[in-house]
Design goal:
Length: 512
């Protein structure tokens, strides 16, 4: 076996949690054990090892809540008009006042988390065909690879919307030796790829996933199914680089054919219930469970159960499964006065009480401590965290219809979510012009999907960032002063400076 000459710069990079994280599993395990020769490395020794890694992929969104959920809400809600940072500090306040820099440690955490997830997906995609186990059928190989490609597409979709041009990594870098350094070195330090090419790779991965992934399972929404691929394709085709409104409509209609629909009661998505109503009152707050999982509206979700609950609920307010736990410090993602005013402008909107809750607390950063607003959509350790739900996609169909000039058709879709919320249909004037229906549409998405990680991306996709965000500081008396105005350069965020320092082939995004 050839002696490996690992460059000191590479070694230092790996010790510093290098941004690429191609091969993050570096110790012996059932996943990494295999046979290595000069020509072939067996990463997965058998089907059992492969299935273990497949489960790792399925659990990524359950176990990586910091970067794909908590920080995504900070970006999409506190960096928009929906929320304040909540717990002001050097890492959160810049999202609230538009002063994010490449030194922000949340940005570094998110980049490294996403890149590590890409590496996990690539490990499956690149190595599955080398598994020397006849028990692994060809149909299983194709399915598991398709699932990993849907996952990779999902991760890159978030990355390209956050940072724009990012390195496109679809393989696993080999060892650096004296013979391979010229070939392998660029794989460890790749340049950025333009956003259009990233979107095209996402599209390619999803179209393959759509062929070979399993069908939607109504009893298990934690799988990378064909329906997840369809939902992502609809979202991808709504974005400017690949915008195709006919395809948005096509894939949303296919989701309906898969059995997805709005649940009748909006509270089914977020509410909790007593797991055992017969317990004495002193124990009831410890016996709370999610009201529902795997609803017909949920397309992809992370699920948490007694014994393995989610910690992230501590970050937003009172965890209803333990009323006093971790409620001694300021919480993230505090609903803004501007969002509350938007809800109050629609009297009787049932979504308001599922989105915002008021408690007494020990701090008064944004509201009086005796009546303080908290984010309420993740209210216990056992709530499912829904990554994608049908209401988002259904409303995207309305956006596509607006783009095609069918304002009446868009209004009919908007009225579906309004009626479920207990509101009347839009007035005829709301669909009288493109400007009117777009205003109604953006408001409806804001109220329907508030504090779910959509608002900032909606503003970016529809070129509304400057109009909305440069005005909100004057009308929202609870928001700290704006540091920099929003411009077209604000649509993507800075690449972490640590990452640029480690990879000489990366350049900072304009404006940072």
């Amino acid at each position: 076996m050839k002696t490996k000459y690992i460059l000191s710069i590479l070694f230092a990079c790996l010790l510093a949690s290098c941004s690429l994280d191609y091969d993050p599993v570096g110790i012996y395990s059932d996943v990494t054990e295999g046979v290595e020769t000069d020509s072939v490395r067996i990463v997965f020794k058998d089907k059992a090892a492969l299935l273990s890694h497949r489960q790792t992929l399925l659990n990524l969104f359950k176990n990586g809540q910091e970067h794909w959920y908590l920080d995504m809400l900070l970006l999409a809600e506190s960096h928009s008009d929906n929320a304040y940072a909540g717990a002001p500090n050097a890492e959160t306040t810049p999202f609230e006042v538009n002063s994010i820099e490449g030194s922000n440690t949340n940005m570094r955490r998110d980049w490294n988390g996403h890149m590590t997830n890409i590496a996990h997906a690539n490990r499956m995609i690149v190595n599955i065909d080398k598994v020397p186990d006849p028990a692994l059928t060809e149909a299983e190989r194709i399915q598991y690879k398709a699932e990993a490609k849907i996952l990779r597409a999902m991760i890159y979709f978030d990355m390209v919307r956050i940072w724009g041009n990012v390195p496109l990594i679809t393989t696993i870098a080999g060892d650096i030796t004296s013979e391979t350094i010229a070939e392998v070195y660029p794989a460890y330090f790749p340049p950025q790829t333009d956003a259009l090419t990233i979107y095209q790779q996402i599209e390619e991965d999803l179209l393959e996933g759509l062929q070979y992934a399993p069908d939607n399972n109504p009893a298990d929404k934690t799988q990378f199914s064909k329906s997840v691929a369809r939902a992502l394709l609809a979202k991808v085709y709504a974005e400017k680089p690949l915008r195709d409104y006919d395809k948005v409509i096509q894939y949303v209609d296919q989701l309906a054919a898969d059995g997805f629909a709005l649940v009748d009661d909006y509270s089914d998505l977020f509410e909790v219930v007593l797991a055992d109503p017969n317990l004495p009152p002193s124990q009831q707050n410890m016996a709370i469970d999610a009201k529902a999982r795997n609803t017909r509206e949920s397309i992809f979700e992370a699920q948490f159960f007694t014994g393995s609950g989610s910690w992230v609920t501590w970050m937003f307010g009172r965890p209803l499964n333990n009323w006093t736990e971790a409620f001694t410090w300021a919480k993230w993602i505090t609903p803004s006065r501007d969002l509350i005013r938007a809800f109050n402008s629609e009297q009787g909107d049932k979504r308001y009480n599922q989105t915002v809750v008021f408690y007494q607390c020990d701090w008064s950063i944004y509201y009086p401590m005796n009546n303080y607003a908290f984010m309420y959509k993740c209210r216990s350790a056992y709530n499912s965290i829904i990554k994608m739900r049908y209401a988002d996609l259904l409303l995207l169909k309305a956006e596509a219809l607006i783009g095609k000039g069918d304002y009446s058709g868009a209004a009919q879709i908007i009225n579906q979510t309004r009626r479920r919320a207990g509101l009347n249909n839009l007035p005829a004037s709301a669909s009288a012009s493109k400007e009117a229906i777009l205003t109604a549409y953006l408001k409806e998405r804001r109220l329907e999907l508030a504090l779910e990680g959509q608002r900032w991306f909606d503003l970016v996709r529809l070129d509304k960032v400057e109009e909305v965000m440069n005005a909100v500081f004057d009308k929202d008396e609870g928001r700290p002063a704006q540091v920099y105005p929003y411009t077209s350069l604000s649509y993507i965020l800075p690449i972490p400076q640590d990452v640029i320092d480690q990879n000489p082939n990366l350049v900072q995004n304009p404006g940072y």
